[in-house]
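Progress report, Aim 2. The chain analyzed during this reporting quarter is listed below.
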Amino acid sequence: MRFELITIFPEFFAGPLAHGVVRRAREAGIIRVEVEDLRQFTKDRHRSVDDRPFGGGEGMVLKPEPLFEAVESLLGHSVGDASAKSTPDRGTAVVLLSAAGKRFTQETARRYATLERILFLCGRYEGVDERVAEHLASDEISIGDFVLSGGELPAALVLDAVTRLLPGALGNQASSQNESFSLLERAEKSQTGALHKALSHGRTLLDFPHYTRPADYRGWKVPEVLIGGNHAEVAQWRHRMAMEKTLRNRPDLFAEEKEPV
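Predicted structure tokens for the chain:
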């Protein structure tokens, strides 16, 4: 899979790309990551990427020209104009990271993991010219209900979330199937009516609690069921604990509809 990150701070990604699952996936050839300096696609001697907003207001806005030029250069063709817009490439997404975008979820990550290529547009300053969101980006994504200084950190997070879903990226592929926000599709394993109902309605759950040695630490003991060796009881306990933790920490997950694929 191919990721391309378009940013005015290319050096930002030196750290995130050099560690953990993303680094191993790059070394194994599972993913290819390119970082593009947006200023390379400017035409003035000052390499300007921003300007004052029409209508007045605070801050500066990223101009459309460099972003359109960057994406078209990487895609190898024009995306068109108001009179004739080109057909988007199949298997490719152009993702604008924006506080005004749709919320990124694990289901979004799964959808992205089926693609061949993602171009990330990392916003900065007060925002990005709306024509980028409307006519260049295929997706406008937010990682949460808060505002960051730019799209670089969100892009790194999305890249990581998608990479670990790709075949071969994790040492044990089951790790990505039994964790927070993963759909617990094996509802037949559930022995509790409430959990079965949650699963049958396509709800997502947080991960179940994890424990390791020592079994007794400062008087806090590991639940006996995890030590007993009965795998069926362990599975039931984990499902029940995942349900309880989700209800306690993220009850909103039971009020939301599943995102369409």
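The longest strand covers residues 92-103. Helices lie at 20-27, 64-75, 106-112, 130-135, 152-163, 193-200, 231-249. These observations will guide the mutagenesis work planned for the next reporting period.
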